[in-house]
Design goal:
Elements lengths: L1 H6 L1 H26 L3 H24 L2 H23 L2 H16 L2 H18 L6 H37 L9 H18 L3 E8 L2 H8 L1 H17 L6 E6 L2 E7 L3 H18 L1 E2 L2 E2 L2 E7 L6 H17 L5 E3 L14
Parallel strand pairs: 6-7
Antiparallel strand pairs: 1-3, 1-6, 2-3, 4-5
The protein binds guanosine-5'-triphosphate (GTP).
Guanosine-5'-triphosphate (GTP) binds next to β1, α9 and α10.
InterPro entries: Diguanylate_Cyclase (IPR050469), GGDEF_dom (IPR000160), Nucleotide_cyclase (IPR029787), Rev_trsase/Diguanyl_cyclase (IPR043128)
GO molecular function: diguanylate cyclase activity
EC number: 2.7.7.65
């Protein structure tokens, strides 16, 4: 639960808004029922229940886009209704709602919701004691909305930049191991749901240490980036390449069978033989290949590809080994 709050910003805002709304509105709801103002009490109760329902929906379905939009509408709509029912004190409720709209839903929706709420209150007019107060309210509501938009926009940009830094390998530009873990889990879920087959290739450059030692680290870096460009030019858009660590990469392919996988691997090896070079000569790589098995975990899948890669290295390098070929044949039945 804490992990979801930490990693999902919109879910945390939804939860914060719901808890604040319940804590902030419930004393007023009690007071209004106690004073016999049933309409205002029912409005408060409806807002609290709707916001709680929005939060529960977000937690259960993970669909924070829809519940965020719903909660922005409920919060601003609720504030307008309170303003219309109880008058001037209701105006104050709209300010926090104008701010949170930008964190709950997309900016274009938030602008529309905020503008509608402000105009609705002005048209209704009951909440204002004078035209000056009404226009002061309109001006301050616009200032608050503009500042909130700027802050939310800046915050979103920063979040996207951080997410990019956390998931991309800075040298080669491909996704890193952290992203790979998520994509493998998603591939397994998709295979179980749709029956699409997935192939995984563990690729390790041969004698890379020697390239670094003899020609320098920057030449080694160039080999890594050139290899990534070469591979990406020769795989499908739906295939994904990850840097597993050092000179080891993982290629995840969707919609491939044994025959297709062999054709792709043969082509990749051929392309690398032809085009991947360093100042001392050819650069080769070893490949361990495994098709996803039904019910397999990411770790088991990777482990099979790793065993195949180990065999490719042990067999002299510059080889492709398929995990299925590592399964020992059934011993022949003994004859009496
Ligand atoms: N230039 C460069 N070198 C790296 C990078 N990351 C890891 N390395 C180097 O990659 C080398 C990997 O060496 P080893 O694990 O011995 O593998 P190898 O020399 O390729 O040997 P085999 O895999 O057995 O063929 C190490 O020297 C690392 O320092 C990187 O980002 N850039």
């Amino acid at each position: 639960m804490l992990y979801r709050l930490k990693t999902d910003f919109r879910l945390s805002i939804i939860t914060l808004l719901a808890i604040s709304a319940i804590l902030g509105i419930s004393p007023f709801a009690v007071m209004r029922f106690a004073q016999g103002n049933m309409l205002a009490g029912v409005v408060d109760l409806t807002i609290m229940l709707s916001i709680t329902a929005g939060m529960v929906y977000a937690w259960v379905t993970g669909d924070t886009a829809r519940s965020g939009f719903f909660m922005a509408v409920v919060a601003c709509g609720g504030a307008v209704t309170v303003g219309a029912v109880v008058g001037e004190p209701g105006l104050f409720w709209l300010y926090p709602c104008l701010v949170t709209s930008f964190f709950l839903t997309e900016p274009r929706y938030a602008i529309f919701i905020n503008l509608t709420a402000v105009v609705a209150l002005m048209v209704h007019g009951v909440a204002f004691s004078s035209p000056v107060q009404m226009w002061s309210f309109a001006a301050t509501a616009v200032v608050v909305s503009c500042c909130s938009y700027a802050f939310a926009h800046h915050n979103e940009n920063q979040r996207e930049r951080l997410e990019h830094l956390a998931t991309i390998d800075p040298l080669t530009g491909v996704k890193n191991r952290r992203s790979m873990d998520e994509e493998l889990a998603m591939a397994i879920a998709s295979a179980a749901r749709t029956g699409i087959s997935y192939g995984l290739v563990l690729l390790d450059i041969d004698h890379f240490k020697k390239i670094n030692d003899e020609h320098g680290h920057s030449v080694g870096d160039d080999v890594l980036t050139e290899m990534v460009v070469l591979i990406e030019q020769n795989i499908r858009k739906s295939d994904q390449l990850f840097r597993f660590g050092g000179e080891e990469f993982v290629l995840l392919m969707s919609g491939v069978d044994q025959t297709g996988l062999r054709a792709v691997m043969h082509n990749l090896q051929h392309i690398m033989h032809k085009f991947l070079k360093h100042p001392g000569g050819k650069v080769t790589a070893s490949f361990g290949v495994a098709l996803l098995k039904v019910g397999e975990s990411p770790d088991d899948w990777l482990a099979r590809a790793d065993q195949a890669l180990y065999k490719a290295k042990a067999g002299g390098r510059d080889q492709i080994v398929y995990a299925d070929e590592l399964i020992a044949p059934e011993p022949a039945a003994e004859t009496a």
